[in-house]
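Continuing the series of single-chain predictions for the mutant panel. This is the parent chain; the variants come on the following pages.
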Amino acid sequence: MTLKSDVHKVSFEIADLRRGYFGYHKLTLARHPSETEQRLMLRLLAFALYASAGLKFVGELCNQDEPELCEQALDGHYLLWAEFGLADERRIKRAVHRADKVVVFAYGGQDLAHWWDDMAGKCARIDSLSVLAFDNPGLEVLLPFVAKTMTLAVNIDEEGNVRVSNGEYDVVIVPRSLK
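Parent structure:
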């Protein structure tokens, strides 16, 4: 028997002072049975950090040919390609060749430090690549927000600190820029 994905409906009010972006978004996200709630919330955080009218979730978990989160030009060219987790070198290089900007949202506790030790030199000369790191405790503070229907206010200050609130909970996430 195949397990079904959980469907989450999210309403976002986003105020990004770094980029001067202010918007309202409604999303429907499927959380695959193998995906953790932390990863689901990281995907929502990634959306908020790069929100635009054209940003969308498109790919499937483990699909090597397309990103999970991206922004595309009208001709299909990727303007932004987002990776989640500890992406391997081949996947990053494939993304870099297909998109103007690639962002890796890395997480994974102790594995994250080992991954970055291995990847830092390989990624150093890729100008279009950014790597943001999130520690597990930082993502765990987002777990009280997880629900089938979420209404979130996200404020991003000039330093990139992210305040997430829903009227009941209010937390601040500080992404660590590795590259």
